[in-house]
Write a structure and sequence with these properties.
5-stranded mixed beta sheet, rod-shaped, Rossmann fold, 6-stranded antiparallel beta sheet, alpha+beta, about 50% helix, 11 helices
Length: about 425
């Protein structure tokens, strides 16, 4: 269905307007210019009142100094004629066949924000984003992903803090490179000491044996000298003793006693050493824990990236009213810029596109105070409207050539008398 636009409008005695007749451009930008206080905004207010109903009725609709009630007449591209006139400014909607309708019919194709664009432009970032998500129908899905993203982000943040704390704690802990990798056992040291003492005892026994055999040899020599009769036996004993002595000397020759001094020192220092060993173990454990938390952090980062890809794919796959529009962190963005960093022209472009998307049947939008745009930007905006098949009726504090109509003192500049109104009647002040 083709969108509805404003074909023409006629106004009398509305706010600051004396009498104005306008035929807006079908597609593109129609600028109503003039100095301040001449009635430009009154034109937009009259259109909003005519199409939007009594909620847009001005608090003082009749022009100051006039006793004639306001009169508004709009012709729409769908053939409808919308009028407000008379003492009560009653609404009259009729089609070319003469059939009448009311506000409900207008509401079906007139988007509220097209009449009140500042309502959208002044909304919060979240409200703008919600409006866009409503249009593309992915609000619930995106909200679920963003909730999941926030949960994982907070979890990752906590894990990262713990990992940092563990690393700092490990670095502050003492480390002793010259101690064993595990605590020393006192039992083991005592066993080693006892083994050495036993071996030393055996060595001493063998030394005592040497002395005993030496004594035995001497005794045998005395027996040989004193007892000739026992010479033969003594010689045998002597020979045997000499043999035994030789063997004993050979056994004792290479014996070396091992000192237990180091073990005794270790026993005395065992607790001091074990304190250092345990300190090294604690530091190693802290470093391992830090590495574990770092691995968890990396895993959560991967989860976040996946969720963000899902969000991008969700928005990228949706049919957006304007290329470059998106929702990031719950706020509307245009080419990556949030609302407060957009140019004034981009804000208008985004707003207009979203308003049209809210109700595609509404082919127009009212824009007040376009003096924020320079002439080049104004031209670009108008070209974009034409390409989009949109109609914009705007005001601008200017009397330059960019304005299609100039309002002075409540009427079109350069027109001494308003043109004849339709229906075969000649325009006369106060006569309808």
């Amino acid at each position: 269905m083709e969108s509805v636009k404003i074909s023409s409008l006629e106004l009398e005695n509305v706010k600051r307007i004396k009498a104005v007749q306008v035929v807006p451009t079908e597609n593109g930008l129609t600028i109503i210019g003039g100095n301040n206080g001449q009635g430009k905004t009154s034109v937009l207010d009259a259109i909003a009142w005519a199409l939007g109903g009594d909620r847009y009725r001005p608090s003082a609709p009749t022009r100051d100094g006039s006793v004639i009630p306001p009169r508004i007449r709009l012709e729409l591209s769908n053939g409808l004629t919308v009028e407000r006139s008379g003492k009560n400014s009653a609404l009259k909607v009729s089609d070319p066949t003469g059939q009448r309708a009311g506000q409900q019919l207008l509401n079906s194709f007139v988007e509220e924000l097209a009449l009140n664009l500042p309502k959208f432009m002044n909304a919060s970032g979240k409200e703008k984003a919600d409006t866009l998500l409503k249009i593309i129908g992915v609000g619930d899905q995106l909200a679920a992903l963003e909730q999941q993203e926030k949960l994982i982000y907070n979890q990752r943040h906590s894990i990262g803090q713990i990992a940092d704390q563990k690393r700092k704690y490990a670095k502050e802990m003492p480390f002793y490179p010259d101690v064993p990798g595990k605590p020393i056992s006192a039992v083991e040291l005592i066993q080693r000491q006892q083994a050495i003492l036993a071996q030393n005892g055996e060595n001493q026994r063998k030394r005592d044996q040497v002395e005993r055999i030496k004594f035995q040899k001497a005794s045998c020599a005395q027996v040989v000298q004193s007892l000739e009769e026992k010479l033969a036996e003594a010689r045998r004993n002597l020979e045997q003793a000499a043999a035994d002595l030789e063997i004993a000397n050979m056994d004792a020759m290479d014996l070396q006693d091992e000192s237990t001094a180091q073990i005794e020192a270790d026993l005395q220092n065992i607790e001091a050493i074990n304190i250092k060993v345990r300190a090294n173990c604690d530091r190693e454990k802290a470093e391992q824990e830090a590495e574990g938390y770092a691995a968890q952090y990396d895993g959560l980062t991967a989860d976040l990236e996946q969720i963000r890809r899902q969000k991008y794919d969700l928005l990228n796959g949706a049919q957006l009213p304007l290329e470059g529009l998106s929702v990031e962190d719950g706020e509307l963005t245009y080419h990556g810029k949030k609302w407060d960093t957009m140019s004034g022209s981009d804000q208008l472009r985004v707003s207009t596109a979203i308003v049209r998307a809210l109700n595609p049947q509404c082919g127009f939008v009212l824009l007040d105070k376009l003096e924020q745009m320079d002439l080049r930007t104004l031209q670009e905006f108008g070209t974009w409207l034409q390409a989009e098949g949109l109609q914009a009726i705007a005001t601008r504090v200017s009397t330059g050539g960019e304005c299609q109509i100039i309002i002075e003192d409540g009427q079109v500049a350069g027109v001494d008398e308003p043109p004849a109104l339709p229906q075969g009647k000649q325009w006369q002040k106060g006569v309808f």
